[in-house]
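Entry 14. Ran structure prediction on the chain below.
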Amino acid sequence: MTALEFTYNLNRVSKTLKPFAMRLTRDSEDANDLLQDTLLKAFTNRDKYTDGTNLKAWLYTIMKNTFITNYQRMIRKNTFIDTTDNLHYLNSSENSTYNEGYTAFAMEDITKAIDSLDQAYKVPFMMHFRGFKYHEIAAKLDIPIGTVKNRIHIARKELKDMLRVYSHMD
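Output, structure tokens:
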């Protein structure tokens, strides 16, 4: 494929990349930057593209890998390495201390909310919380896997409603 043909195909497919970039970055300007980086990498590495393969998939892979690389670079840049004897890795953006008393109140409310759930929802939810897979829960409780998924979904929804006061926390 010639450079002109590659550029034409690149332009034709690039319009479908913007929504994917938006989903990754959740910011219009960052999405535009990611799209530009992706197209630049694709063009400069066009010799690595195998003619006849899926160009769109190749571009999506480049975009995803570029996003991951940029994210990891940003995390490394914001991480401070303490060179004292105990060698702690500290995130430099975390400059405040957290009030553990607030956590105790929240945990108490969470426990009360879970205890107030109907047993039909509480048991599968707690099993899933403890690490059981859906199919394992279904086998242990001798119910269909769809029922397990539905009960866990309902438990989450009820807990979300009961604990709405904590929705501002991230």
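The chain has two domains: 3-79, 100-163. Will compare against last week's run tomorrow.
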